[in-house]
Amino acid sequence: MPYWPTYDGLTPQSRAAFLEWLAGGRRVPDFGIGYVFLFFYGLERRVLLDASRSDEAKVDLPAIRQEVAELLAVYGSNRSFERYAAQLLNVLDVTLAGDRELAPPTAGRSYEMPLSLRVGLGRIIAAERPIPARWALAWLLHHPEAVLRTPSRRCAAEFQALFAARYAHEFGAGLIVKVPRSKLVASVQPASASFGGPITIAFDLPDIARLDSPLSKLRKLGEACEADLEAYSRWVGRNPDAPKTLAAVALLPAELVATHDGAEARELWRWIGDLLAGTPVGFCDGRDLLERCASLWGEKLAKAEAVLLAQLLQKGGYGLEPDVRFGGSVLAAGDHVALFQLEPDAPAAPSAGYAAATILLQLAVAVSASDGSISEHERDQLETHVEQSLALTDAERRRLSVHLAWLMRSDPRLTGLKKRLETLDAGQRALVADFVVSIAGADDRIAPAEVKTIGKIFALLGIPEEEVYARLHSVTTEGPRSEPLPVVLPGALSRGFAVPPPPAPRSGLALDMDAVAAKIAQSASVAAVLSEIFTDDAASSAPIPQADSTSPSGLSPAYTALLVALIQRNTWSRDEFEGLAGQHQLLPDAAVEVLNDAAFERCGSALIEGDDPLELDLSVAKECLA
Predict the structure, then answer these.
(1) What burial letters (b/e) apply to 58-77, b meaning 16+ CB within 10 Å?
(2) Number of CB atoms found within 10 A of residue 102's CB
(3) pTM of the model
(4) Residue 338 · residue 347 · CB < 8 Å
(5) pLDDT by residue (tens digit) across 427-464?
C-alpha cells in the first residue's frame, strides 16, 4: 500500500482485505496499519470538515469519539497513528464540551501541547481564576520543552501527589497568571493528504503557548519533586513489588507517608506510641527497636542504614537518640535508645549551635558521672544549660534535652573526641575547660574521680595538667560565691581538706548558668568550630570526583574509561562491577552516583539501576559517550 493510501488506488486483494476488516469490527491488533489509517481518514473528514457545515454530522461526533478512543487502544503502539488519533480526540473533546468545563488531558506527551490543554488553561486565565493543581501538572507534563526524569515516570502516582501537595503549599488555591494579549489559534495537521495541509481553528481565548514565567515556576517545583523522589524511585526500581514496606516509607517525602504507611510501618508507630504513653521520652533496648525493623536490618546497622532508620522514624513523627545524623553513634542491639515525639518543623541535620551544645554536654556528663553518680545539682545545671545554650530553636532544645537524658542513662566516655577538640584555638579550649570545671563544682564538692576525668579532658584540650587545680580553685571566684570550693585530692583523707576552709553548707545552685551561657554566646566561633568537628565522619570522607567538562562524555578520564568498559553488556553482578571499578581506582558506590548524575544531566534518565545485578541502559550509555 502507498504511504497515503486511497480506496480507489488499492488492488482488488487489498480492497477485499479492507472490507473484511471493516465487517469484522475493526479491532484486529496485527492488521496492517494502512487499513486503519484509510478508515481514520473518513473520521477526520467528518469531524474537521463536515461537522462545521452540517448539523447531521455533529450528531455523529460522540460516536466518532468513542470509535477513535477504541482504535487508539488497539493500534496506539504505532507512534504515527497514536499522534494523529490523540490530536483528533483533543479536537473532539473541545468541540463536544462546548462551554462546559474541560478535564485536563492525561495522555502522553506530544510535539505540541494538546488543544484541550490550551483551551482549558486559556479559559481559566481569561476568567482570572487560580490554576488548579491538576491543570498546572498537565501544563508541566505536556509542555514540549519539559524534561522529565525517571522518578516522574517510574513513580507517576507519587510524583503527581507530591506535586499537588507542594503546589498547594506554595500557591494556595493556585497560580494566577496575567492574561496575555495573544489569542489562541490552533493548527491541526490531519493525517489525510486530501486536506492539502493543516487546518486552523481560532478561539477567543488567550494563548498560553508563549508564557515562560509561570512555566518556569512549575518546572522548578517539578524538579524539586523529582529530586526528593530520587531515592524512592531507585528503590522501587530494585523492588517493584514492595512499594509500602518500611524502606519505602523511609525514603518517601514526608507528604506521601500517610498514603504509603503499610502494615509494618503502622505496627512500628503503634509500638512507639505505646512506649511513650504520654511521657516526653521513652527508653528501650536497641534490640527491641531493631526487631521491629527486622525486614530491613539485623542487630547491627551500617552507617547508611542508621540514617535510613532515623528517616523512617521521622516520617512517623518520632525521633531517636543517638541519631547518627546529629553526630550520634550507630545504633546496635544492647544500646540504650531514647525515643520521643518530633515537632513538625524538626530539623534533619544539626545546626552549628546544636553541635556545640552536644559536645559540651558530652564532656559535662562525663565529668559529672565520673564519681559514680550525677547529683541533683549537677543534673539541674545540665538541664539549665539545655535551656540556655546558644541560640537554639525550640525543636533543637527539645532534642538536646532528650540527648541529655540519653547521655545520663548511658556510659559517658571521652573516646572519639581527641581529633574533634584538637582543632580548637587556645581561647576556645579555655572556654570548654571552664565549662566542664563549672559543672564539676555544681554540687559544692569535686571528687577525686571528677578531678581525674577533668585531667583527661584537659589533656585532650592540650592544657597543662597543673592548670587543673588552678581552675578548680577559682571555679567560683567569677560567680556569686566569694570562697573557693573544697577540693578532694586523690590520695587525701576521706574527709578531704579545703584551701581555704570550706564554707557552711547552703542550698541552691553553686553556678550562675546565665554567666556560663553568656560566656558561650560570646564566642560564636566555638559553635562553628564544634559544629565542624562534631559532624558525622561521613562528612569528612573523600569527595566524589567531579566531572571533567573537557572530556566528550563530561566525565573524568577514569569514569569515562569505566563507562566504555561497562557498555560491553547491559547486566553486571555486584562483584563484577566492584572489580571493574577497582581496576580504574574508583569507589563502586561513588561511581554509580557520578555516572547516573552525568546521565541525568545529559539524557534526563538513569544509566545504572539495581544493586545486584546492576542493569545498564545501553542507549543512555551510548548517548553519554556520543
Answers:
(1) bebbeebbeebeebbeebbe
(2) 20
(3) 0.61
(4) no
(5) 777 877 877 777 776 666 677 777 888 888 888 888 88
